Amino acid sequence: MDGATALDDDADTKGPREASPLRLEFAGEWHELPPGNPFIIGREGDLEIDDNPYLHRHFLELQHHDGLWWLANVGVRLAATVSSAGGAVQSWLSPGARMPLVFERNVIVFTAGPVTYELNLHTEEAPYEVSSQVEASMSGETTVMPVSFTAMQKQLIVALAEPMLRREGVSMNELPSSSDAAKRLGWSMSKFNRKLDNVCDKLDRMGVQGLRGGPGKLATNRRARLVEYAVTSQVVTRADLPLIDDEALRNQSDSDD
Length: 257
Known about the structure:
257 residues; alpha+beta; Tumour Suppressor Smad4; five-stranded mixed beta sheet
């Protein structure tokens, strides 16, 4: 796995490692999940997130087996973005898919209707750690992202991600509509949609899933996926919030990016 190194137990001095509980944080509340029984997250289940009709009754399942904690998407429509290692490793968990949690800390972000949710998972049973090269890159010493954005493209991303970037211990945020984000930037809808197309096309070419349009692909889903990816990968951070109110960008001519 790129950007990670395995942690090997010393078989001569250590016996079999006991399964560690998984700790889950949502909306400031912590839940300890002991190995043994599956833990269901959704509108109903072991963690009832929200009475949101767009959210599946049973959406995500956490279970320990084969020596690891696993996250499964047991829904039929929604996907989740799973970020690990400070945003250096990211996965898109589509319906029916499952993945092992191989890092100590994982962040899960998903959108149901107009609301975006964030869960944090912590486990001491992590067979991989972040490599020194990735730690350096996440600190800004080197560049991780194989794609760059113009100032106006970043301005658009920040406008859509603003509620998540401004959150203070809040695990639920409402996704701005395209019209609200365009108004926030002082742009026309045609300009906003053109810039959004440019950003999504650029990330799609980079291999980011969930941003390509087509039959059955709602505009809300594309905006939500963009926000999830940008925030969890640290494409934009709180430090970028001043871009929204940058008058020089607001007055810049509307040229294609």
